[in-house]
Each structure stands twice: as structure tokens, then as C-alpha cells.
Amino acid sequence: MTPNQETVRASTATSPISHALDRLFHFTQRGSTMPREILAGLTTFSTMSYVLAVNPLILSTAGMDRGALITSTAVIAAIFSIVMGLRTNYPLAMAPGMGVNAYIAVQVCQGMHIPWQAALGMVFYTGVLFMVISLTGIRQKIIEAFPPSFKRIVGAGIGMFIAFLGLKNGGIFVATPGSIIGLGDMTSATVLLGLGGIILTIVLVARKVPGALILSILIATVAGLFLPGPGGHGHITGMPAHLFSMPNSIMPVAFKLDLRYPFQHPTQSIPIILALLFTDIFSAMAVLFGVGARAGLTDADGNLPRLKQALSADAAAASGGALLGSTTAIIYLESAAGVEQGGRTGLVSISAAVCFLLALFVTPLIAIVPAVATTSALVMIGIFMMQSLGELDLKDITVASTTVVTLLLMTLSSASDGLALGFIVQVALLSATGRIRTIKPVAWGLVVLFLLHYLL
């Protein structure tokens, strides 16, 4: 008897619940079982649960309520993981994205002094635009306008910024009067904990330990209970008042977005919205095709049969995330962990969503996680995103020049400036080196739009 025949035979003896779920998700048809799908969902949750600690910490630096953000993060992850699972029947989980949150909190709100309510309004309009271009086919033309090399550069640039932010959170990088950036106090317990966490995380990831990122956060948080805090006062990690509690109210951040600001400040808002839009488009496509191929969901031509549904769910999550008080919700690459566990259907997404909701009742434990404990996760996420540089032909002076300009601007200025100016540089260099025919008509339109922004 073949493995598939055994799976089908086993499914005939399942409970009514399992049978009903199989009719909805077709996991038997895809060579899986209900227990395997649920276990895969738990695995996906364990690998991406760090978002419950990291996202609120990052966005709270913009002035948002951290307790409300914990609830918002979990609710958004649960709602849109369920939407993705039911709409596509793919094993994909969603949550507020790393990178976009850092860009909004640090570069938009702190750097440009834009209120967080206005920034959430921009995130909302990004989702609306993403929905429009996903349903009309414009999305494909925009994607094609950017050379494959530039898409990888943008991803790597955001990764570098995330890693830089992680090192800053850990006190490893500090502002100094004599230079752009300097090293922190290498004898400080906080800095040593941050460095130790980075090394530990790299080792855990290299050894393929499940849940390496959340495990490193937990270890650093526990270690902080015994290490002196800044200036020798208290400890790095405070003791929680309770282990369990009812979830914090989401209302301090939910439905607080300012939808008028982008219309009142269009020249300031448009580049930010475009940067968010392009980031979401590229990350969604990369994760969908990467995880989809691994799960055996692509057709003979390597395409996903339900790509439009997946992209529309992703677009809805961007606007929905803003409404509920957080930045863009994205499809998480960590969904691949559930796929490796054998997950093949949307039941994986539903199982991960339930875990996020249950996590709301341990909010006191999540709230004590210190910023330095997230250093390792941010640096590791940055490393993951920067691996795309390995696919670039840096011997090509055009590619190398565009890479340097884009990475430096994204890290030291802003993601929107890096994307806009980096793209202008690449188009200019392609034109000057005799490769003008490789430039798509839409690319020229984008260059004009970016130039008008800087000139006006």
C-alpha cells in the first residue's frame, strides 16, 4: 500500500470534525492529515511569535501605547492569518511586518516628525493602492519596471536598516559627537547581553533549531533578570506583576489613523506611500513563490493558481492592520517552517491564528521583554534579508553603484529616499552605458515622479 493510500484509508476512520475540516481544506488530497496540519501551525507560530514582543517595542518608540500594541499585533496576526487560510487554502500566516514598522517608527515618525496617526493613514492608503493594482493588473507592470537586481537591492537595504536598528536598540551602536556612529560601552551588561544574544541566535539558526528567534529572545529576557540595568540601577528585565491577565484594550491605537494628512501634505506623503507599496509588493511575491514552491502548490510553470486571491488578502491586511493600530501586515517567510513540518493547507494558518489569540492572556510576560532582548532577532532578520545580495553580479559597475547608493541611503537616511534615488541612479547608469532599451516605459514614469518630488 502506498503512503497516499494509507493517508486516504486513515482519513476514513477520522472524527466528524476531521472529516468536516478535510472537506473545507482538502488536506488528505494534498497528502497531509489534521494532526500534521495543526502541528505545522504550532511550528509556524513558534518561529514568528517574536513579533508579539518586537513589533510593540518598535512602534512604541513613535509614541504608541505598548500594551495596546501587543493586543493589536496578536489580533491582526490572527484575523489576517485566518483570512489568508480561508481565501487561498495555503499554509501562510500573517502578522505586522518587520522592516515596515521600523521604517515608520524611526524614519517617518521620529526622523520626519510625522504623527503616528498620520503614518498609519499612509499605511492604510498603501493597502488601498495595493488592492487596486492587484485586481487591475497594474501590479505586474510595476514589478516588471524594476530590474530583478534592484528588487533584491531594496530587500537587502531594508534588511541592513533592520540590523542597524537592532544594534542601536542593544546599545552596541550609539550616536557620538565626533562621528556618524560609534560603539557603545563594551563593558556594559546591556551591550554584552546584546552581543551574546546575536551570537547565540546565529548558532541556533545555523543548527536549524526550531523557533530560534523567539528562543533567543526568551533566553536574553531571562538573563536580564540577573544583570544590572543601565547605570547599575535595577535589572535589565523587570519582574512581571502577574503571569496571566486579560488582554489590554486595543482602543488606544485602533481606528486612530489620520486619513487627511496625506492629502494635506502630498509631496511629503507620496514617496513614503510608494516606498511602503513597493516593499509590500516585492515581499509578498517573494514569500508567495518561495513558500508555495516548497509546499508543492505551484503549477507546471511555477505559478501559484490562487495568486490573485493571495495578493488581495495581503492588500486587505495592509489597510486592516492600519485600522487596528499597527503597520502593514505581511505574509511571513516563517510560514516555511510549517511547510517543512508537513503543512499543506489553510488549516496551518488557522492553527497559528488560534495560538496568537491564546498568547494575549500572557501579556504581562510579553511586556517585560527589554529592547536589548530583541537585538538578536532584528539582526538575524536583517541577515536573512541581506542574503539576496549574493544573487547580484557586483562585478557589473552599474549594479554595484546602485547597490552602494541604495544601501547607504536606506540605512542612514530613509527607505523611501534609498528606493527613489537608487532607482534614479540605476536608470541613469543604464541609459549612459548603452542599455537604454532594457528600461521599461513604466520605469521612466516612476523616475519622473521621483524627480518631481525632489525638485518640488
TrEMBL record:
Presence of the UniProt keyword Cell membrane in the record: no
Keywords, in A-Z order: Membrane, Transmembrane, Transmembrane helix, Transport
GO CC annotations, alphabetized: endomembrane system; plasma membrane
Membrane-spanning ranges: 38-60, 67-86, 118-138, 150-167, 187-205, 212-229, 271-295, 315-333, 345-362, 368-386, 407-432, 438-455
Main location: membrane
One Pfam family here: Xan_ur_permease
Protein location: Endomembrane system
GO molecular function: purine nucleobase transmembrane transporter activity
Membrane topology qualifier: Multi-pass membrane protein
Keyword DNA repair carried by entry: no
InterPro entries, sorted: Azg-like (IPR045018), NCS2 (IPR006043)
Family: Belongs to the nucleobase:cation symporter-2 (NCS2) (TC 2.A.40) family. Azg-like subfamily.
The protein, known as: Putative MFS transporter, AGZA family, xanthine/uracil permease
Source species of the chain: Granulicella pectinivorans
